[in-house]
Amino acid sequence: MVVEVGYAQAWDPEVCAPWRPMSAEEARERDAAGSPYVVVYREPGRKAPLEVRLVSWQDHYVGLCVYDAQGRRTYELDMRLLDDPSRLLRRYSVGWYYTGPEMAEFDKTCPRITVELFPDGRGRRTEERRGGGSFTTSPEVQEDERWMDRPAFGEWPLLSAQVHELIEPVSFEAAEVAEAAEPGGADAPATCWRPPRPAQPGPINELFRPGVRVTDGYHPEMTVVEPHRVGTLRVPSGLLAVSDPDVDRGDRPRITVPVPPGEYALDEARVRFSYHCEWRNAEVTTTEATAVRLLLGETPVTTWEMALGPDDDPRLFIEQQTVGFDTDGATGCFADAGAWKPLTELFERGLIQEEPDLDGYEDIDDGSMFMQRTRDEASGGELTTFATTGDGTYPVWVGRSGAGEVMGVVVLVEGMPELLPEHDGTLTDAAV
After folding, report:
1. Would you tell me how many other CB atoms lie within 10 Å of the CB of residue 226?
2. pLDDT in tens, 75-89
3. DSSP H helical segments within 133-192, as ranges?
4. d(Cα 92, Cα 242) in Å, to the nearest integer?
5. Which residues pair with 223 in a beta bridge?
6. Within 10 Å of residue 133's Cβ, how many Cβ atoms?
7. How far apart (Å, rounded) are the C-alpha atoms in residues 73 and 254?
8. Which helix H or strand E contains 93, and what residues bound it?
9. CB 201: neighbour CB atoms within 10 A?
10. What is the per-residue pLDDT for 429?
11. Would the pLDDT of 431 be above 60?
């Protein structure tokens, strides 16, 4: 059986076509440089490709899409190049099992199986059934199923041969290049396939800028009001902890951020909005919190980054993945990591054991999301807890100035709202 092999700078799944086809020689150069390119495998006479592979060594990534005769993606595989340059981890895969040729691609009722694998042997297999519901187990995967040898350029096998039930030996032929790739020029269209990206910060600065209009998807218009200054936090050790004070109590905090030793302001971002209250049968205006912040200085923040824990490896992140601190008590805290153990012990004694008149512990009663404060007399370090709006994982966003200095650390307690146009129809700089 003959399979045509073509190369391009990108692949657009919206139109099921390559973007800027190129020769094998040009693709080889991009492979050596680590730049992204795609490989398209086609059977002559078949409209849809057999499979498409995206290679981007600079992102430690190789992706694979398998197509059926109707042009639907039936399987996607995400592979990662880690410390061993000779093999690839089969990091993430999802298979769709269409019940008939009339079922649309990615139909919500389509059964699918998702498998996540990690280099340390962990994994998770989730089966989503057509009738609803899902079933999650640990996958039974052998070492040779978890890893794949990294082929040299031009020596990749047709990984979907078994899926397509190709019994005959496959021979590869170079596809004709319909048009020459233009040097430079515009970036690939937004619809083109690209390596996965972790969750992005969104317009965090705007949540602390009075007058900005946002929506959370449920309330059509909300207006940012002046941040509420709650107090200060002392971090004499120069290492800020952001964590659940109860989950990590006595151990190392999940997230730490180096900061200059000092005392810093604690703020709560708020929005005001109106809604129809059914039990009052009237329009009601209220104010709610969207984020909490440790403010280290007044220099404008130009970039935000997601803080990583000691075991977080960005090379393993899948699309829109977040990492942060976990809570099963809807609680987080800012604290001096250098005094983590005595501060969390005070938190337990004051809140859980309810010791009366406990030195170094106080409740914060100002109507904000901040709830308790503890202070270690020996070091001067402090801990302040805040409420989240539920359990789960909360990313910690670190804001840096143009010079790279940490100017703020933020936790979104309500998720990131979407910016609305200003009244003159324009958007703020951060939304453009």
Report:
1. 12
2. 999 999 999 999 999
3. 143-146
4. 29
5. 213, 272
6. 8
7. 38
8. strand 87-96
9. 18
10. 47
11. no
